[in-house]
Amino acid sequence: MGESTCHEAIEELQIPEFMKAIRYVEPKMFTLVTIPVPRPGANEVLIKVKSCGICGSDLHIHSGDLDTRMPVITGHETSGIVVKKGDTVSMFQLGNKVTADNSELCGHCYYCRLGKPLYCENFAAHGLHRKFESLAASSSWLKPSY
Ligand SMILES: [Zn+2]
Ligand SMILES: [Zn+2]
Predict the structure, then answer these.
(1) 83-131 pLDDT, tens per residue?
(2) Alpha helices, H only, 14-141
(3) Which CATH number do you get for residue 106?
(4) Which one of 3, 19, 71, 131 is least enclosed by Cβ atoms within 10 Å?
(5) Taking the model in full, what pTM does it have?
(6) Which residue range is the domain that position 67 belongs to?
(7) Å from CA of 10 to ligand 1 middle
């Protein structure tokens, strides 16, 4: 590993105090805001986003024809690198390249225990229902390096 590559890797893991985000307060009403960088909970990872798609759902959020909890920060299809992890996270290491499921399932409600997680009573989708904070490690995956 060359010196510049090592330096870039260290810079990638530095976490600023604040970040910019697009936040919708109602359909068709969004602003660029500066917000604190989220702190991951015990079972969560913080991902520095390197790329983010614009999904068809984002267009529905914009137009107001999708059930969305406002205010919301959109952008739920992301990939990036793990820059911080909670105390109980063991399957990821800092610097891992990851992508994530855009939804979180509770794993303990009636439907989750029945093996029908898509009916989860506590279903929350990033960028729709859940304030976009850090991601549950259980909904993140390692992304192959290219
Ligand atoms: Zn989507
Ligand atoms: Zn559930």
Answers:
(1) 888 899 898 999 899 888 777 788 899 999 999 888 888 887 776 655 4
(2) 56-63, 110-113
(3) 3.90.180.10
(4) 3
(5) 0.73
(6) 3-142
(7) 31
